[in-house]
């Protein structure tokens, strides 16, 4: 039997409008759309296993975003700075030809 999440999601009307806008917008990056859909489904009362199955994701990923939204609200769904050295990409070598 799936475990119930301790992070029950209740959305304000403004949050629901914003999340629905993100979920419906096909020009946003995939990860932003998925996070919005996860929270909308959590607000409907689905558990992490059900959400993961619907969105073809992992339960742990759903749990992470549910918790971040619960503690930080919409701001928690944004990308955060990662520790360590920033990625650098050197220019591709030119092909002679």
What does this structure look like?
With 97 residues, the protein is an all-alpha fold. The protein has 4 helices and no strands. The longest helix has 14 residues. The mean pLDDT is 86.
Q: What structural class is derived from the secondary structure elements?
A: mainly alpha
- What is the number of beta strands? 0
The low-pLDDT segments are: none
Rg, Cα atoms, Å: 17 Å
Task: Please give the alpha-carbon distance between the first and last residues.
Answer: 62 Å
Overall residue-averaged pLDDT value = 86
Which outline best applies? Answer: elongated
Percent strand equals under 5%
Order of helices and strands: HHHH
Number of helices: 4
Q: In this structure, how is the largest beta sheet organized?
A: none
Estimate the helix proportion, in percent: 40-55%
List keywords for this structure.
mainly alpha, 97 residues, 49% helix
Task: Note the topology.
Layout lengths: L12 H12 L5 H14 L4 H8 L3 H14 L25
Helix pairs in contact: 1-2, 2-3, 2-4, 3-4
What would you say about this model in short?
With 97 residues, the protein is mainly α. Helix content is 49%, strand content 0%.
